[in-house]
Design brief:
Blueprint (H helix, E strand, L loop, with lengths): L8 H10 L5 H12 L8 H9 L3 H19 L2 E11 L25 H14 L3 E6 L6 H12 L2 E2 L3 E2 L2 E5 L5 H8 L6 E2 L7 H7 L8 H5 L1 H7 L5 E4 L7 H19 L5 E3 L21 H14 L4 E4 L5 H10 L3 E3 L30 H12 L2 E3 L3 H4 L4 H8 L3 H20 L3 H16 L4 H11 L8
Parallel strand pairs: 1-2, 1-10, 1-11, 2-5, 5-6, 6-7, 7-8, 8-9, 9-10
Antiparallel strand pairs: 3-4
Helix pairs in contact: 1-3, 1-11, 2-4, 3-11, 3-12, 4-12, 5-6, 6-7, 11-12, 14-18, 17-18, 17-19
The structure holds S-adenosylmethionine and iron/sulfur cluster.
The site of S-adenosylmethionine has 23 residues, from β2.
Length: about 475
């Protein structure tokens, strides 16, 4: 595979320049187009125009349209997961990260099988069913990586504790190595390009394998060629101009769709947070405000309406709640961000964690809040992956409104299982009320029978 850089920086700069002064009529037409039931996404130029808008009233219309699309396509379900940090050992020197090799104060830790088992068990005992396993980069053996994943899948705890989908966030691999980790049954392969500006990329990745921009840029192509259907992308906001990077990400999505037939399954929206051992993380060169993040998320929802959008506990509880409405469809909860942290006596703020967590609430508190203030259904669903609805098959279905036929009922089924086995009394009561209310809206017989199965003790029921 040729590794030519397909991010056309000049084109992005020209588009941003062309729409420097907001064109109200052009934006009005774009927003009208977004409201069409068949809306499939935006072009680079349309996205550039929205990013360049400076009119406050138009901005409110962008937010409102994003909210409507989010509701229409995703209904009121939100997928929940937790990260599991397997290792903070790393050979790279990313200037923004606490795990960088030059951070000599960091206590390095790579979990052994027993520790992975213990961490996973703790997460299953909270009620988590989906994990994101996170690895620093070092010369690891693929057999070892596959074993760490298998170990986590193997954990069972009472009453219905188990992990049903494991996604991974790790450095780019060769196609052969992607094939090797695919055998461990991974879900989404996630890897953030961090920035699409080659100049900034070079500055913030001074050494180590990550310094190779193209090797990372083609990671998704290799993963897909190796048979991993679902891939997740992201920009690390704060490194470079956010408008440039958002368009770079969209260009990356389009190239993947062109070459591999399908774009990314998810996009994540990390912002640089303070990390001990990284001076720049305290003062990022292109720090973005809450409102800029809000705009990025709303505009991305319009640009790629069917792509899952993920927000982590890097953001505060209040902001996360709001951003769920503008487009986010998956969030992590109760996260701790260093190896062994779920079993640490107290959260170690300084010497081991990757960055500062701004939403430290428990899974139950996140769920209670989501249910009572937003009427959202927390979902632990893993049905699609296990029924083979992945990659282009998933996207094909997503575009025909199947989310409301599968994702919502499956979300309710997994939520009912959570309420039965893990919820606190107040969450149980609030959750039951929400489910009763949703059932009144009319559901089909198959769904009602499935819910009855969960309520009478059966686990892992999905359509
Ligand atoms: N080592 C692998 C890599 O870099 O791709 C995967 C693990 S790395 C811990 C996961 C992501 O954390 C990175 O891609 C980066 O976007 C993010 N990250 C690093 N430092 C951060 C910081 N200070 N604040 C927020 N996110 C950060
Ligand atoms: Fe290592 Fe990833 Fe952190 Fe860079 S971002 S130092 S590669 S863990």
């Amino acid at each position: 595979m040729s590794m030519q850089n397909f991010i056309d920086e000049e084109k992005i700069i020209n588009l941003l320049e062309k729409h420097k002064t907001s064109d109200k009529k052009f934006i009005t037409d774009i927003l009208a187009k977004c409201q069409d039931i068949n809306h499939q996404g935006l072009s680079l130029e349309e996205t550039a125009a929205l990013l360049q808008n400076t009119d406050p009233e138009t901005e409110q219309r962008i937010f409102k349209t994003a909210k409507e699309i989010k509701k229409r396509i995703y209904g009121n379900r939100i997928v929940l997961f937790a990260p599991l940090y397997v290792s903070n050992a790393c050979v790279n020197n990313c200037t923004y990260c606490g795990f960088r090799i030059d951070n000599k104060k960091l206590v390095r830790k790579t979990l052994n099988k027993e520790e992975i088992n213990k961490e996973t068990k703790t997460l299953t005992e909270m009620g988590h069913k989906r994990l994101l396993m996170v690895y620093g980069e070092f010369d690891y053996d693929m057999g070892w990586v596959a074993d760490t994943i298998q170990e986590a899948y193997g954990v069972k705890s009472e009453p219905s504790g188990e992990i049903r989908r494991i996604n991974v966030n790790m450095a780019p691999l060769s196609m052969e190595n992607f094939k090797a980790i695919k055998t461990a049954n991974i879900g989404t392969y996630q890897c953030f390009q961090e920035t699409y500006s080659t100049k900034t990329y070079k500055e913030v990745h001074p050494s180590g394998p990550k310094a190779d921009f193209s090797w990372r840029l083609y990671a998704m192509h290799r993963a897909m060629e190796a048979g991993i259907d679902d891939v997740g992308m992201g920009v690390l906001y704060g490194l470079s101009n956010y408008k440039f990077d958002t368009l770079g990400l969209l260009m990356h999505c389009q190239q993947l769709e062109k070459d591999m037939g399908v774009g990314p399954h998810t996009i994540s929206f990390p912002r640089i947070e303070e990390a001990m051992g990284s001076e720049m993380s305290y003062n990022p060169p292109h720090k973005i405000s809450d409102n800029e993040l809000r705009r990025i998320i709303a505009i991305s929802r319009l640009a790629v309406p069917y792509t899952g959008m993920i927000l982590s506990t890097r953001e505060s509880a209040e902001l996360r709640k709001e951003l769920l409405e503008y487009g986010i469809s998956q969030i992590s909860a109760a996260s701790r961000v260093y190896p062994g942290s779920y079993n640490a006596a107290k959260v170690n703020q300084n010497d081991t964690q990757q960055f500062t967590v701004h939403d430290p609430r428990s899974l139950d508190d996140v769920i209670y809040d989501m249910v009572t203030t937003l009427n959202y259904i927390p979902s632990f669903c893993t049905g699609c992956y296990r029924k083979g609805r992945t990659g282009d098959h998933f996207m094909g279905l997503a575009k025909t409104n199947f989310m409301s036929s599968f994702c919502t009922p499956n979300g309710i089924l997994t939520f009912a299982e959570y309420l039965r086995d893990y919820a606190s009394p107040k969450t149980k009561e609030a959750g039951k009320k929400l489910i009763d209310k949703l059932m009144k809206d009319g559901r089909n017989k198959l769904f009602e029978d499935s819910l009855c199965k969960v309520q009478t003790g059966e686990s892992d029921v999905y359509l």
